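Course exercise 7: structure representation. Students receive a sequence record and must write out the corresponding structure in token form. The form below is the worked example handed out in class, using Metallo-beta-lactamase domain-containing protein (292 residues). Read each field label carefully; the graders check that inputs and outputs are placed in the correct fields and that the protein name is recorded exactly as given.

STUDENT ID: A-19
EXERCISE PROTEIN: Metallo-beta-lactamase domain-containing protein
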Amino acid sequence: MATQLVRLPEVERLSASVVRILGGNPGKFTLQGTNTYLIGSGHQRILIDTGEGKPTWAAHLQSLLSEEKATVHQALITHWHGDHVNGIPDLLKICPRAQVFKHQPDAGQTEIQDGQVFRVEGATLTAFHTPGHTEDHMVFVLDEENALFTGDNVLGHGTAVFEDLHVYLSSLHRMRDRVSGRGYPGHGAVIDNATARVVEYIKHRQQREDEVLRVMQYGKLDVPENEPSPNPKRGWTPLQLVRVIYRDIPESLHLPASHGVLQVLLKLEAEGRVVHDSDSGDWTLAGQRPTL
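STUDENT ANSWER:
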């Protein structure tokens, strides 16, 4: 997957009020690294996220603040994962007076309220609680650019992982119509049209749900139009569904993919569309029992 990623500079000015600083932690799940953003145009700036504590990130931040003759006035944390919060101690060494805000804050942090507004010269940010990737996840709208900092709910490349599919979809719908401009994701390149990307994510999740139901009904993905619906012959585990749905991806990725399929099944179970047998671990379509 790494060969498909565009190279991103360690530090890059993205607009008059937004500079991206990479976290120095590229990887399979972090893509080019965790994106952190220095926002504003005056002496006092807002920082979104802090990386995972890599020395290169702290060095880049300190150098950038010196060049900009600026300081971090407030740091806004999108969510609790280590690659977004572990740089907080380094930030506070560089900017001891910085106030750290986070939804469901840890010790020494201040709560971010849904709808709370943060202002510095050149930037007005409004926070929105959008659980899904994590329960405490926040996104931020930059009024001056009609842009959205999407955190890890929507990425610049590929799809995101989530804790609860129903909650995640609700948050995606909440994010969809917030802005009409670009998106600044927690990982990956800038998104040209945030709304369009969020819509893609919603459609992708619906596609996966449709595929799960199709495989459980027919035992395969490719179903000719008007093919008679057979009686299910078996129950399915998430990993068995993955082997059909994700047949073209390496087997080493099947286990991570099964976590997403399990979330689909849990959503369908809550809707009364599938049933889970706790003894066997199998999942079947509601109202239909597999034959032995």
